[in-house]
Design goal:
about 140 residues, mainly alpha, about 80% helix
């Protein structure tokens, strides 16, 4: 039963992190482009794409319209957070990697506990029996 609450708390916090980030990308576009340029990214084409992804990722996970789409969203968010954290570390700005590290922890928690909380299990997430055997 604690896994049920752990799933919903981690998924909700991850969604808030992503939706807040999308809001910042929309409202503070010039600042976001400047930060991305400092990280070495071509910001003009990247920002609109990231706004869409930062909204659709959590929507796919929360709505679970399709299990493969939900799993794809988990994978996409994983790689985005990993690369974001590494980009900040690469330019020697470890404080900028903190949201990515928090996001990764929330993402892993959400992914691992999703089969405890959702009706249709993901074939890729460990089942509750496997996790119990690992303890």
């Amino acid at each position: 039963m604690p896994e049920y609450y752990l799933y919903w708390m981690s998924t909700a916090l991850l969604s808030v992190l992503y939706l807040t980030s999308a809001y910042i990308y929309v409202t503070r576009g010039d600042w976001v482009r400047q930060v991305l340029a400092e990280l070495g990214y071509k910001a003009p084409y990247l920002v609109p794409f990231m706004i869409v992804i930062k909204i659709l990722g959590p929507v796919a996970i929360l709505s679970r319209i399709s299990m493969p789409l939900s799993d794809l969203a988990y994978a996409g968010i994983f790689f985005h957070l990993l690369l974001s954290g590494l980009a900040h570390l690469g330019v020697r700005k470890p404080a900028g990697a903190l949201p990515a590290a928090i996001g990764l922890a929330l993402l892993v928690t959400s992914f691992v506990t999703q089969n405890d909380a959702r009706g249709v299990p993901s074939p890729y997430a460990p089942s509750p029996n496997v996790r119990a055997a690992m303890r």
